[in-house]
Design a protein that fits this description.
Arc Repressor Mutant, subunit A, Udp-n-acetylmuramoylalanyl-d-glutamate--2,6- Diaminopimelate Ligase, Chain: A, domain 1, single chain, 47% helix, five-stranded mixed beta sheet, 397 residues, 3 domains, Alpha-Beta Plaits, four-stranded antiparallel beta sheet
Length: 397
């Protein structure tokens, strides 16, 4: 569990702290704190360091040599360090300007704290805050698990527990799901231990929580399998596409996030439906029914029917018109159906289809002519053809 550097700066022990550099990076996560106390062999000291650790420097180790802070900065580049805190006023009166500028250029928070503040008090306050947050997150996870996965949950009991977590019962809520794509593949390729996988999930969870808290959203959340589930107020998701642009970059080592948001509800009993809808949005993206920029179930349009209609009925809806194309593809190992789908998705544009499929426009023209010899493409059946293809994709995967 982590806490942001900006939250730490609000502690009583940090009342006299001064931020000298890295002002735009104070939302970094802190999971531990560490004292650099062996400057004669700093490199060996750093072997004990890890990511997300807040570094403390006691002034007597760099007395009369405050410029050594710049050396620390260079050595910390290999770590995701949230910031460096230097004790001042006894051995170090002030931090040299060049050092401050070096930290500012690296966008690394550099903070000073008076020598009179006891490190033990600071450390205890950080660990206590992390422990409190851990308990709060666990409480949120327990409540969400019951609301979404326990058909016999006590609605009144959970309602009272939600009120203690600042749940506003006078506004609509919805469920948002963030799915970590390729997690199993990533874990297998990097031979990650179970502990490392859990830490990776918690990293995504903490980063998302930090972003939403920074934007003033009220929510509760939990990790569930390879997803992170949020119970959020309606206004937090009303313009989520613009929020996505502000989210940290999650695409790394093949990992990425996909978001799905269910419809707004007022009753706790309906949250399970909103959760199912949020998952359906992600499923629709995986089946390539919709683009990855669509997040709300309400924006699925006609494809909402796919997730509210029984399979037997859907099977009756296809493939009345596209069957000849499917059979031709199966017999000739061709991709006429793919071509038809891209062609129709792009308003019957040969050029657009050719660009997407990386072939010459004449190739698309030849394929469309072939399709027209099997089935007729006209202005009256375009929608039905495209809809049948989407149903086929849905049932196939």
């Amino acid at each position: 569990m982590q806490i942001s550097l900006s939250e730490i700066l609000k502690f009583d022990t940090f009342k006299q702290a001064q931020v000298l550099a890295g002002f735009d990076n104070l939302d970094k996560a802190v999971s531990f704190n560490f004292v650099i106390d062996s400057f004669p062999d700093l490199q060996e000291t750093l072997t004990w360091l890890r990511d997300d650790v807040l570094v403390f420097v006691f002034g007597h180790y760099i007395a009369n040599q405050p410029g050594k802070l710049a050396e620390i900065l260079e050595m910390l580049e290999d770590f995701k360090i949230p910031g460096v805190i230097v004790y001042v006023n006894k051995y170090i009166k002030e931090i040299p300007g060049p050092v401050i500028r070096a930290f500012q250029e690296a966008n690394m928070p550099l903070i000073t704290i008076p020598w009179q503040v006891k490190y033990l008090d600071v450390s205890n306050e950080i660990f206590s805050a992390i422990a409190r947050k851990q308990l709060q997150v666990q409480e949120q996870s327990d409540i969400l698990s019951q609301l979404l996965f326990d058909p016999h949950f006590d609605c009144q009991d959970n309602y009272l527990r939600l009120l203690q977590l600042n749940y506003a019962d006078d506004v609509a809520h919805c469920i948002m799901v963030a799915k970590i794509n390729n997690l199993k593949h990533h874990a297998r390729n990097h031979n990650l231990s179970e502990t490392a996988i859990i830490e990776l999930k918690e990293h995504f969870h903490s980063t998302l929580r930090g972003h939403f808290l920074l934007n003033g959203f009220n929510f509760i959340s939990m990790i569930h399998g390879d997803t992170i589930i949020f119970l959020m107020e309606k206004q937090a998701t009303s313009d989520f596409n613009s929020q996505m642009a502000l989210l940290p970059e999650f695409t790394q080592d093949g990992l990425s996030l996909d978001f799905g948001i269910g419809m707004d509800v007022f009753k706790l009993e309906e949250l399970a439906v909103s959760y199912s809808q949020a998952k359906n949005v992600i499923d629709a993206k995986n089946r390539k029914l919709i683009g990855h920029d669509i997040c709300h179930f309400g924006n699925l349009g006609i494809f909402q029917i796919l997730y509210t209609t029984d399979i037997a009925t859907l099977k009756q809806l296809y493939p009345n018109k596209i069957r000849p194309v499917i059979e031709y593809d199966n017999t000739h190992n061709s991709n006429l159906l793919d071509t038809l789908e891209v062609y129709l998705d792009n308003k019957n544009s040969l050029a657009a289809a050719a660009k997407i499929m990386y072939v010459h426009k004449n190739t698309i023209l030849y394929r469309i002519d072939k399709i027209n010899s099997l089935i007729e493409i006209n202005n009256f059946n375009i929608f039905n053809l495209l809809y049948e293809i989407k149903i086929y994709r849905y049932l196939l995967s």
